[in-house]
Design a protein that fits this description.
By secondary structure, the chain is of the alpha/beta class. The protein is built from eleven helices and nine strands. A six-stranded parallel β-sheet has the order 6-5-7-8-4-9. Helix 6 packs across helix 7 and helix 9 packs across helix 10.
Amino acid sequence: METLTLLLDEELDISRLFGLYDAHLKAIENELGVTIAARGRQISIDGGDGQAKLAEQVIRRLSKQLRKRGEVGPDDVELFLSQARSGGSVEPQPLKLTARARPLNPRNDNQARYLDAIDKHDLVVAIGPAGTGKTYLAMAAAVSAYNRKEVRRIILTRPAVEAGERLGFLPGDLVEKINPYLRPLYDALYDMMPAEAGQKLIDNGQIEIAPLAFMRGRTLNDAFIILDEAQNTTPEQMKMFLTRFGENSRVVVTGDTTQIDLPAGDNSGLVEVSTLLQNMPGVAIVHFSDRDVIRHPLVARIVKAYEDRDKEPR
């Protein structure tokens, strides 16, 4: 058992740091098995086996976040606790992007490694559960590269596996039928730039959002290309896609191998490529887990519950 004492800075708003009814401190106590006593700006932490030190690190990170943003919430507490439990650095090296009005920083170590891989490799494959920022950060990197004139266009694509025979029953022309499957890409794009600016780039052809089938037979030069939901590609589709990009192009492939919607018996191109290209120069493969989920804290617990279920013997 060890006891650590931490003295908080005078300018910190303790009520925001501790949370409503000390909810943030209680969450740290429950997750790390420590006891935290606060007397004014002095905090005492009792715990064993290095847990008190982890709690101190989490509180320091929350304090820094509070100074920077002016607020911290339960999602921040959950994020820093997740990093502490996984043994990762509680404060990842920041990598700033200029895709939005304010800099976009990675929220954990894996996100920092992911952005670094995108910056240094022509092809990056990101595999992991929903909520880890795979597509969002790839989109931010694409818009940032376009703004810096490193590429002349952005191409966003995903397979529409549900289309199949049911596509004919949907109202409208082909574009209107396909559009619902591409909507998440539009949503992510409009979060990076004003909708009017994004639509103008789409109208000019500088940003293209299209189903994967539209990539066949093309050579894509000077482009930042993102393939989303790649777990729903077949090996043949994945090969077709990866042989499309040309000079001065960068490709990011994202997907979740636990969410494959292909017909029974069909293999996933994402599963195959994650091993086939594993040690190839110029290629980086980044794996995310439920510990990297940055949406509502409940999302991480839901993902973990499903992963535990899938590990149980049938």
